[in-house]
Queue: 4 jobs
Job 1
Amino acid sequence: MILSLSGNNFVGLISNQICNLRNIHILDLSCNNLSGNIPSCLQNMSHDSDWQYDSLYAEWSSFVSEDMFDMHRGFLPMEGFIPMKYNDMTFELFRFKGTIDFANKREVYDYKGNIMNQFFGLDLSSNQLVGEIPWEIGNIIKLHVLNLSNNLLVGSIPGTLSRLTEIESLDLSHNMLTGNIPTELKELHFLEVFSVAYNNLSGPTLGRISQFSTFDESSYEGNPYLCGPPLVKNCFAITKLLPSPPSPQSEVGDEEAMEHLIFFASFALAYIISFWGWMALLYFNKRWQNSFFLATDIYIKEAIGKVGKLLTKG
């Protein structure tokens, strides 16, 4: 049910084999030096938790009576668990007897007793995790706490997190997330703690709707291009700071300018090729060379004569 390894010096990747813990309720790997991507298979978390305790008790009750449970606690499959009658049902569920410390809503709480059968938390904060937040995390629909803060996560916030309808604390702060905050997150009606602070998010916040009306500026701070309440920046001012996409008219103008440039360049190239081609022909053909220069002399003499006549008449 519980795996808490926080506050150590573990390094390396989070092994996919951890996803075999299909009955896990609390997985806390925070405050280590873990790297790599978040395994998408963590969606299997708590997958079998609904039936595991019933089937486990059924195996034991086949040969151990209720009196033996009361007299010999050591017969139980795991120390720290005791049988508990559940209303008028004829079977019993196992109840965690010890306590576990786990951070929730920015505080560390001691969890014990029956609540451990209903509480689910995932804390991977304060590591060196990279890559995007797997969209499959949204399939852990029983989660009450999700903390991925203080890592190196990139990409956008997956809209599938809106499936975590029972979540009370969602902390994605101090990463390198980009894009808009998905509007689907407004469906998380039980949120008491929410933070996307100190990322590279842009666009409007989730405003003052429903439970988001209880969150102040600290939930969004550190994102230069976020706007809207509870932030002081309005979205109109932010829009002017962002580079605007080129308009269709400017794109058409650029295309016409490029066509003109290509036309003149091709014309100049053709002129140069023709001129030097003609010069080469005259250089290698003496007969044409003599004819060309003779015609040029005649043309120049006629031109000078005509100019002289015009000047004399003037």
Job 2
Amino acid sequence: MMMFGLVQVIMSFIPDLHNMAWVSVVAAIMSLTYSFIGLGLGLATVIENGRIMGSVTGVPAANIADKLWLVFQALGDIAFAYPYSVILLEIQDTLKSPPPENKTMKKASMIAIFVTTFFYLCCGCFGYAAFGNQTPGNLLTGFGFYEPYWLIDFANACIVLHLVGGYQIFSQPIYSAADRWCSRKYPNTGFVNNHYKLKLPLLPAFPLNPFRICFRTAYVISTTGLAILFPYFNQVLGVLGAISFWPLAIYFPVEMYFVQKKIGAWSTKWVVLRIFSFVCFLVSVMGLVGSIEGIISQKLS
């Protein structure tokens, strides 16, 4: 984890999302590669077993309360599965028109949701069918598969490369927000606004900013420290998903839609969307509570 954090410190010197197209492409290729490998290994294991190992009711628990905690945690994991709303506007800001940026993003979002849902369902279903109640939280890194060794190692390398790129893509909105806020707050401070060129042998020159170096390094160190302190894959994903899902993917878009379309209070559409937003809020709360309980249980066990 410390090595991963060191790599992220170096990668954080990339100025902004406009300069990260190659990172996004590499991360996407790695994601598709290990997803195909996981899907293929799960399907092969089901065929080798000759039967489906899982059940419709899912993993059993000692009592109803434990089962509910697992369900709530799963809701948090599902909420984390579609976190692109965090970076949607940042990506749209990098596009050029024509065609209009919002139409391009709408088409891209539909394709992305279809592709990711296909892989999520296939990998999740075939993984559970292959291992049943013993299914690890991560099929490839949780030692669900052992052979062929070279293919598992290659898939895990793809996961690492994907996470390196994914970390940077999802951190860029935070970096950009910090840059903008400090530039407005301290417009005459050289530490925040001055940029310097750094030229290394065999590499193109790239700009460096003292504030970016300090802030982004501190950010990576803090997130790496949290990862070392709480190394619980599914539970941490559930917390992050539950925290970000309702406000970013549901509440703000619904409120903006009301303003944009001038939806009147207590109209049919207003009531339906309010109910939808409230139901999603309850889902987020349940996912957050279940995931926090999972972290506490793991920490105390």
Job 3
Amino acid sequence: MVTNGIERQQILRMASSLPSGPLVLSLYLLLFPVCLATDSASITYHGGPLLTGNLHLTLIWYGQFGRVHKNVIRAFVESLHYNAGANLQPQVSSWWNVVESYQEVAGKGSSPINVKVVKQVTDLKYSAGKVVTSEFIQKVLRKATGGDSNTIPVILTARDVQMQGLCFTKCSQHGMLGDHQQPYIVVGNPESECPGSCAWPFQKPDKGPLSITLNPPNGNLGVDAMVIAFARALVEAVTNPYKTGFFQDNSNNANKTVEAASACWGIFGSGAFDGYTGKVRVDPETGGGFNGHGSRGRKFLIPAVWNPKTKSCWTLL
């Protein structure tokens, strides 16, 4: 069903008066399957190359990271191709299958896009400082890759590193480095800086309507929010690596380009609307909100992605 603004506020007021707890939250998510209207302009193909085949990632742990952070991020990458079994549905790999379908829509055939972590680099001394700028990115990437252009470097910043623009929903970004136009990804950690912008739905938003927050599925707000940001950046690096692939026709500003993941911002399940994730599941043991099963027994909350075949936002639930 589709609700108007008054009805949405009534639903949220009702939700705020309910007692808290995983069971009540699960009932709420099932009872109110309202829809979020998306922008009428579709994500279209502009003729440029996509990233296909084997994608080798270099993870750059910039700053102090705990074991949980590293394990969860690596498990997420593994989950893109992991078969969790019939009893563990839906799976993160189903989400990645939608990303792989962009090749077919672009007329480039249909084949798996195999993502694998081939190298990890740790920078505990903050060699480029604690503020992410364009100069910071170039310095860190060149040092970490050693000039190897056959890898996609991913900078993951610790909680005490500031990322310019993080407070304006720039929770991650992708771009190109050097003459070879080597794709790269930067993922910010919103645990300390602007959690109300980039840690939702695990943190109350800074602005907007009343929102129900979820417990992070892996028990750590920082890394579970980083998984969401990383997932968005990875999708857009694959589908629009050189700014000539898939993006929205009316978004010609480089800083406001609407791409395959940003077109579905804030949507995690069917029936989403502003301030409401849509349908998700709650782990009965941990109380964590999730929508996809992955490797190592991990559960993840994965953002919606634009489906190029149905021309609509697609979610696991």
Job 4
Amino acid sequence: MKVEDTSKQHKFAVSRNVECLLMNASESQDVWTGEAEVDLSSALPQELPINPWDVALCVSGTLISCENAIVVAAIFYTPTLRTPMFLLIGSLATADMLAGLGLILHFLFRYCAPSDAMQLATVGLLVTSFSASICSLLAITVDRYLSLYNALTYYSDRTATRTYIMLVLTWGTSVLLGLLPALGWNCLRDGGSCGVVRPLTRANLALLSGSFLVVFVLMLQLYVQICRVVCRHAHQIALQRHFLPSSHYVTTRRGVSTLALILGAFASCWLPFAVYGLLGDASYPPVYMYITLLSATYNSLLNPLIYAFRNHEIQKVLLAACCGCVSPSLSCHSHSPCDV
């Protein structure tokens, strides 16, 4: 009897040990599986929720690219439009087209392939294109001013040389400003130095905003001088041709209203962003940055309407293209900057 009891106790102990081992193995497996699930879930990339403001900027960039691509194509495929005046308009349209493309790429890289390198690349493209757009506007203003004060020598080789110099300075300065973030002037490693647009630093934005204000003051002074010349010429023409005072008033008002439209569109679009970039920092709500930046993009949307589509020669080219009868020998009789 003792032998049987000992045998039963031994079997019971063995089975008890086996059950304990199985339970421990099962628990350890559950623990390992749970840890693995936690590790895998933490390793998965988190999807960034789409910001409606980024969608609005992307849509704006698409419209800007399409609109300015029409102007670039019209000037590029029409040899008679390759005069100094239209080269400056083409430079403006190219800069605005690249700005629209930069807004599209910013949206794609932000939500599809986010990385610091792509962020620096898209910000650099946007800074370059918007700087080139603003500098091209200044170059067009200078060209208009010189065409009025040097009307007799405007259609000379000096004008073409001066235009090429302005284009080189415009794009050289813009490319340099766009390369600054990639060359190390960014806040990727120091979030406290960020401005209202990441990864641009406050100092970088202050430089860009200050440059814009300088360009705006120069354009304002030049257009004031242009307005004086236009008023004086309109008065002289009215006296020579014995126009009625009402005709002189209508002509002068039309010229002044055109200049007011140009400066008003430029200032209303860019001044909010320039002032906010100069005074704001990263602690401000992002919605302010989106509102002012979206307003600035509207300038690239309005530039073709003001400088290109109102020009009679470009209207002829676009009308011919719509009719399917584009001719490279299309004549261009008027090349005065005042027609732009």
